[in-house]
Amino acid sequence: MSVWTRRRDREPDYSEYVVARHAHLWRIAYALTGSRDRADDLLQVALEKLYIAWPRIRDYDHPDAYVRRILVSTNIDNSRRPWRHEVVTDSVHDDRTSPDPTGSVDIRDQLAAALRQLPPMQRRCVVLRHWLDLSVAQTASELGISEGTVKAHTSRGVASLQRLLSHTGEPL
Amino acid sequence: MNLHQLIDESLEQPTPLRLDEQLRAGRRTLRRRRVSSVLGASATAAAVVALAVTTHSAADKIALTTPQAASHGAGDKTALTTPRGPSHSGFAGQEVAGYDLNGKLVVRPGWQVVERIERPITAPVEVNGTVRRLPDRSTALAVTDGTTTQWVLAWWSNYQSNVTGTYAKPDDIGPTSLRDYVDIEVALATDGSTDAVVSVSGSDVMTGRNGVEVIDQRATPELDRAGTTTAVAKVTFPGTSPSNGWVLLVRSSQGVRTYPVIGYPVVNSKTDNGPDTVDGFVHWVAPHVTEGRYP
Fold it and tell me: In a 3-state reduction of DSSP, which class is residue A90?
């Protein structure tokens, strides 16, 4: 009986949080993986872990930071395998692409492609530093690497993006 | 437009949230955790363990049903079936097969084992942070639901509160046999070596095996030992992009060839971040070779 009571207690505000933050968290997963399917898988695993931990972290001021850390660490673990880690799900993923709300399809697609071409650690550093606006120290802590390594990979990643996008005339 | 805005606009719109599905997945995971923790903490642990050992030894025996092998195109593979029933509720992973936290090998309902390799892991693997131990149990399986086949390498250790590991992939890309798949996965899990990734021709040119593509290579005589030649290759595994390339140290000797898989991002990816270029890798690996870390 207590199991049911505790489960019902956790679900209303867990659901409220997931509904409110799903889009943002999915975009982090997508930025880290560069693939819709992998972003879906990564976020599903992260939200399962969040469900377990929810009674402990529900009162955090920033649960996003906890989920972001799960996303990053799970993404690193997955990238240590040569092949994609296969996950069994109850239903087929929705592969429909949503319409582009900005209309800037070309630059969006080109930057997305350029991000995908970056080595995984460079991509993580660029995403955490320049999109999520984390400091060098925060990024180093999230990735479990030194601050010097963060600086090196961020610099190399941005340089690669500049090179890959040079023909577009878009300054970075 | 700055980089923040550019990245923000480059990200696609999310896949629609399926909250009910997410809640079900969370409940399943929570249930599994509770089952294992209740079993572990129970005051009647001795009785439970005795029962578990009894049921494990019975359930882990897999019944042979050879006629189904051909129907799944398994050729000379031996077809096997696994027991079904409530025991699946304790399965710790999301894969189609693996060990539960009590060390019992389970297969998801609807899936059948068509090939099995016993105890493929014979060297320590990481069981908890930096702790490495030889798993108490390990097995490799080819499992099918009649439509698709997946390869699984799973292990279980009784270290602390029990630890399991499972790697799985569909059999449609990469290695051409379960044995080659297992060789590569075991090399990665144990920081060991395998000859299933690249082969070396008489003229010391490296060629990928099992779908692996060599995208850069060079001889590294500075890393040679007596009787061996050494080279470094940057490769991509099937289904991955060149940006996810790995760098490998490849050593061959007369008569016997070994190919230590010690490339990015497996080795020290969290501390050294793993070099991702051939030159960077050679610079990184040289002192390790001098220390004799890679025979």
Answer: coil
Q: Say what the pTM is.
A: 0.58
3-state secondary structure of B246: strand
Convert the pLDDT of each residue in A103-158 to its tens digit: 455 777 788 888 888 888 888 999 999 999 999 999 988 887 788 888 888 998 89
Q: Give the bridge partners for B206, in sequence order.
A: B200
**Burial class of residue A122 in the structure, from the number of CB atoms within 10 Å of its CB (0-12 exposed, 13-18 middle, 19+ buried):** buried
Distances (CA, A) of A77 to A71, A74, A85, B239: 10, 5, 10, 18
Give me the pLDDT at residue A139, please. Answer: 92
Record: contact B17-A14, CB cut-off 8 A: no
Beta bridge partners of B202: none
Inter-chain touch B243–A14, beta carbons under 8 Å: no
Chain B contact present for A68, CB below 8 A: no
Could you check whether the bond before residue B260 is cis, i.e. omega within 30 degrees of 0?
no
Encode burial over B133-150: b for 16+ CB neighbours within 10 A, e otherwise.
eebebbbbbbbbeeeebb
Q: Which of B60-74, B86-100, B198-212, B240-254 has the highest mean pLDDT?
A: B198-212
pLDDT in tens, A55-105: 888 777 778 888 999 999 888 777 766 665 444 444 444 444 454 555 455
* Average pLDDT value over all residues in chain B: 69
Q: What angle do the packed helices A136-143 and A63-79 form, to 10 degrees? A: 50
- Interface contact A127, partner B, CB < 8 A: yes
Chain B nearest CA to A164, separation (Å): 13
Helix intervals (H) in A34-146: 36-57, 63-79, 105-117, 120-126, 136-143
Rounded to whole angstroms, the maximal C-alpha distance in chain B is 67
Distance from CA of B137 to the nearest CA of A (A): 21
What is the pLDDT, as a whole number, of residue B41? 46
CB proximity under 8 Å: B 226-255 to A = 237-246
Asked whether the beta carbons of residue B12 and residue A7 sit closer than 8 angstroms, the reply is: no
Higher pLDDT: A152 or B267? It is A152
Given a contact cutoff of 8 angstroms between Cβ atoms, the answer to whether B117 and B179 are in contact is yes
Count how many Cα atoms sit within 13 Å of the Cα of residue A167 in the half-sphere of its side chain: 4
Facing residue for B19 by CB, picked from A19, A97, A119: A19
State yes or no: pLDDT of B56 exceeds 80.
no
> What does the buried/exposed string (b/e) look like for A48-66 if buried means 16 or more CB atoms within 10 Å of the residue's CB?
bbbbeebeeeeeeeebeeb
